[in-house]
């Protein structure tokens, strides 16, 4: 049977078909009465199981193939063009060298992606969550930097193995107008933070990590040395659990204090209100986190600008008291025209200008901790980068080497830089 009706001139055979009966005239055709024919579907190569024909290769001239090298390096050619270029590269050394150079240039255009999580990811996620559902009991603003810095350090520690926990770390600070240091390990640094944070925990009514250990004074260094001596073995990674539990307890408790953070926290020889003690602990957590990161060769970013500004402000507010202590002890110069002023009255001042992240300006009274800084009585001006000033206050940068812009009374400038370094302690 034919696939479709052809007019082959043989009418005798064409009078009958499958579409109807010629004798009865019931067909729908015309003329001979033959039924209409519906063409059958044509067979496809894909349906027949036969192999598809290979596409004909492009025959391109050398100049055209050379012009396609850039697109080929960017993977922007069609399949046939790419095949033609690659076949040509096996035959032409000059084009092969040029293609290799272009491929290397393309890799430079691609930014390398770090496998580490963005340090700001936790903050962004929490901010997004809190925008949708504010906390029933929010953390006070003056405790936010401690919450953030302890969380950042905990994130650094979470993947440490035994080798990292026992990596050597040298704690550095400034003492007796010279550098001082103490050798320990990563675990020893966390034990140090645990014991000094314990002063805040004890003030809040939480358990003191020292427990029954006798301490001659409440100074941070004395507490740390007592804890280290009482340990039967050097601190290991197990100290992280105690430290993290304590930090969570401190943050949770200060959220319930309901006051402005005026509760006194004793540091042995001096006291700080709770709000300043939390800033102090955040600052030390960041500084020692950098010590740990340096020991394991890992990058660590400074705090956010808002938190860094709070830490710098605390240091600036403590400078007049340190200046007075140094002057009584003898190291600080009395100045060309020293004079005591009544509490709350303006006196000789140094303008401390902090540049960069968390920056600002502070007028530091020079002659009395009770005086008020005054622009009218300004005798010197010092400019420092924010992170550089914090490292000076941590005892990590010698005062004589601090990269500072200086104008005015050199003696006053030296006194303030050395007083900033004396804020540090183990």
**Count of discrete alpha- or pi-helical segments spanning 4 or more residues:** 15
Radius of gyration, in angstroms, nearest whole number: 40 Å
Number of extended strands: 8
Q: Which structural class fits the helix and strand makeup?
A: alpha+beta
Q: Main sheet? A: 4 strands, mixed
Strand content: 5-15%
Give the helix proportion (percent range): 40-55%
> Which spans have pLDDT < 50 for at least 5 consecutive residues?
1-33
Mean pLDDT: 83
Give me the strand/helix succession: HHHHHHHHEEHHHEEHHEEEHEH
What general outline do the C-alpha atoms trace? elongated
- Kindly report the spatial arrangement of strands forming the biggest sheet: 6-5-7-8
Distance between the termini: 104 Å
Provide structural commentary.
The structure is a single chain. This protein is an alpha+beta fold. It has helices at residues 11-14, 62-67, 69-73, 79-89, 93-109, 121-132, 141-157, 162-165, 186-203, 220-230, 239-255, 274-295, 305-329, 386-393, 410-421, and strands at 168-175, 178-185, 264-266, 271-273, 346-355, 360-365, 372-385, 405-408. Strands 6-5-7-8 form a four-stranded mixed β-sheet. Strands 1-2 form a two-stranded antiparallel sheet. Strands 3-4 form a two-stranded antiparallel ribbon. Helix 9 (186-203) runs antiparallel to helix 12 (274-295). The longest helix is centred in the last third of the chain and has 25 residues, at 305-329.
